[in-house]
Amino acid sequence: MEAIFRVFYHLIDRIRSEILNTQIDDLERIMHLLRVVMFDLSSDDMAKFFEKCIPVINNSSNQQSIYSINSRLEQYRLEYQILQEEFVHLKQINKLAVEQKLQLKQKQQLKFVQPQPTIEHHRRNSMETFDETSASCLAKLIECLRDENRRLREQNLQLSRQVEELQCQVRRQSH
Fold first, then answer.
1. Coiled-coil regions in this chain (predicted)?
2. How far apart are CA 146 and CA 124, in angstroms?
């Protein structure tokens, strides 16, 4: 329990001046500081942070193991940020896919409503066939992207679990 208290104390201490300088009624800014800024640590900051939080016995093997854990935690943090950026991109692609499906349905409804002369009808049929083929290819692409999205979410979950395990190891080594 003491280790958890130390960690939160030092995290909040890093941004204390920013919190105190924020107006009391600016709850969004305070929450942003607590959710984002407080956890934004570079690898050097993280090493210093863990040195403050966890008393280290002057044993070189213990220091090396804590350093390797710190570097692994930093790597996981970077991977997590990259995955979050990819999720934003995939959401936009999914939105475009929904819009395209809606447009395709509207075109199909118009096809049944308006009779066309034969030459114009053949021209439109070939255009619609091209559109349907294009839409089919895009639908397959979207499905592949959704599969990739699922895979990335699973990988993100695994990385989160590994981060938790590493944090537990750090806590155990500090005791």
1. 66-93, 135-169
2. 32
Q: In the structure, how many helices (H) and strands (E) does the chain have? A: 6, 0
Ranges of each domain in the chain: 78-174
Would you say 82 and 76 are in contact if contact means Cβ atoms under 8 Å apart?
A: no
* H-type alpha helices, 15-116: 16-21, 27-35, 43-53, 60-113
> Nearest-CA neighbor of 39 among 21, 68, 14?
14
Distance CA 10, CA 52 (A): 8
Instruction: Name the nearest CA neighbour of 10 among 85, 2, 127, 109.
Output: 2
CB-count exposure of residue 33 (10 Å: 0-12, 13-18, 19+): middle
Locate 42 and state its tokens.
């570079």
Which tens digits make up the pLDDT trace of 135-167?
A: 777 778 788 888 888 888 888 888 888 888 888
Q: Is 170 helix (H, G, I), strand (E, B) or coil?
A: helix
Cα 152-153-154 angle, rounded to 5 deg: 90
Q: Are 119 and 43 in contact (CB under 8 A)?
A: no
* Terminal-residue alpha carbon distance, the chain: 11
How far apart are the C-alpha atoms of 39 and 35, rounded to whole Å? 7
Greatest distance between any 2 Cα atoms in the chain: 89
Q: Which two tokens stand for residue 146?
A: 């959704």
pTM: 0.31
